[in-house]
């Protein structure tokens, strides 16, 4: 007989799987585990560390676990019976018993009286149908206790039991869902943290790689540092040794420093004294400078007066002066007879022939043994030295330094000693007038420098050979002409002439030697090396006084004339040279005679020699003739002619001369 009660819409299923799924989801969400097939294994691993969550999950599983022995609900053949799970306490179960129907054929079953069974003690302990303990819901006072035993046909009671179980499960599901949400939030946080941690891990890996590379570098650097450390330790030992040495030296130097400090103290005291003395000296120096300036002015004025007095003395002695020098007898002339020469005083000599000599030629009207007397400005006997002659000549050199034109020429026959007098030899004792003049000029220049004068010396050497000018310092043959510097004819110059600036006496001596080697000489009857030309050494003295703005120019001509001699049969070979020499010498005599007679016209241009010496023979000039004579009786006639010519020159007076002085603009 089928039941008229409706079929239950809710089937009782096994809740173990759902509860385990809920627990696994809760634990997975709380632990932020990755979604994989091995979720249970990871739950077990995390359950070891997370004890609280594991215990809670275990409690849930035990609370919601169904009884182990369960029976499915089976309808009877008549659909009147329903198999139910065992709801008793413990393991006791009851089987439904068919109730015998009434024998009546009334299809409608009689209602069963609603008799509520008395609740057992187990019901008072809140034990459910499934034997699980239920949590109190807070409404225990109002709920009615369920009967321990439910009849098979008591659907209402069964429904209440199921409904109560369902509500409890629903509440548990709600709690688990809330927990699941919380755990899901935790899982999301953990996943987010996992992603950030993954990034951090990647960053840390890159940093680890970089640090590993740095570690390698540092290891290599460490090795290098170890090596350098060893070297530095060795160096440190050396430095320690050197430090000991330097410390010892430092101690020594400290001692020296102490000594030096004492010396410095003494020196400072001395320095202060010196400063005081220096101040005093500066005051004295200033006073002395004032005195020096005054004395220089006075000295300059005195120098002017001295020059004026010197010039007046030279004018009193004569602007044209003649010195006579008798040369000594040389070794090869010891067998030859000598003239009789008496030296009456320093300016007069008396000459006569040797007693046994032939008187057929020479004097003419003079008888044998007649003595002739000649007077000059100075007479030098054979015993006179080169320095004695230059002592008289030095006064004229002084005039040349003061700006006057001076001419000194040696005159005489061949072999009378003119070249020796003018040039001399290389030995200092036997130097001639030219080397001594140069030395005297440089000595006087030093004294003039104290007065504020600065001098420049220019020198040139030439010869007049057969009326042609030859440069003795230039080996190239050139044409030379005599030209005037200006229209006033105060000074002359020679074209294409080599002029050298002299800085020392040695330079001038070198030029003099070159000129001596280039001069024209030849052997004659009177001399093996006779000068066949007129040699002229021109020295130009240019003085400048910057302070007084003055400038003076003096010309000094030192001339070694060719020997004068008469033509003879054996001298025909040198006829042209002799004619030119005698012509120039005769023209020189004519010029001097014209000056003596004070003629309007003086024949300077009749020969190259007189033309070249024109500024030094008349007017603004001082002239000195060095007459050289031979003491041999064979040369008596030529000696007598030379003495007569020199006496005529000595009687010539040129008048007052002027100094060449210019003002520097």
TrEMBL record:
User: So where does this one cross the membrane?
Assistant: none
Output the superkingdom of the source species. Answer: Eukaryota
Give the residues annotated as coiled coil: 201-263
Q: What compartments host this protein?
A: Cytoplasm, Cytoskeleton
The UniProt entry lists the main location of this chain as: cytoplasm
Q: Which GO terms describe its biological process?
A: microtubule-based movement
The record, for Pfam families, names: Kinesin
Q: Where is the composition biased (Basic residues)?
A: 1-11
Q: Might you report a single GO cellular component term? A: microtubule
In Gene Ontology terms, what is one molecular function of this protein? ATP binding
**Keywords per UniProt:** ATP-binding, Coiled coil, Cytoplasm, Cytoskeleton, Microtubule, Motor protein, Nucleotide-binding
| Low complexity bias: start-end ranges | 18-40
Q: Which residues form the Kinesin motor domain?
A: 319-652
List positions binding ATP: 412-419
Where is the stretch described as Disordered?
Answer: 1-52, 83-110, 124-145
Please give the SMART domains that the UniProt record associates with this protein. KISc
Q: Which PROSITE patterns match?
A: KINESIN_MOTOR_2
Family note: Belongs to the TRAFAC class myosin-kinesin ATPase superfamily. Kinesin family.
Q: What protein name does the entry list? A: Kinesin motor domain-containing protein
Species assigned in the record: Microctonus aethiopoides
